[in-house]
């Protein structure tokens, strides 16, 4: 395999890793927001 192809694969793998981390952050953020909304809703329904 040529050096150019190895560099391209390494660069692509790094980009994919960054995209994956970004998606995980967004998912956790959305879950936290939903948990807060649910907690507020549950508090209102109990009152």
Question: Would you give an account of this structure?
Answer:
By secondary structure, the protein is mainly alpha-helical. Helices cover 94% and strands 0% of the residues. The chain has one helix and no strands. The model has no long low-confidence stretch (mean pLDDT 94).
Topology, pairings included?
Layout (H helix, E strand, L loop, with lengths): L2 H44 L1
In short:
The protein has 47 residues and is mainly alpha-helical. It has one helix at residues 3-46.
Distance between the termini: 67 Å
Number of discrete helical segments:
1
- Low-confidence sequence ranges: none
Structural class call reads mainly alpha
- The proportion of residues forming helix, as a percent range, comes to over 70%
- Overall pLDDT: 94
Radius of gyration (CA) equals 20 Å
The geometry reads as rod-shaped
For the biggest sheet, the summary is: none
* Helix/strand order, N-terminal first: H
What labels describe this entry?
mainly alpha; 1 helix; 94% helix
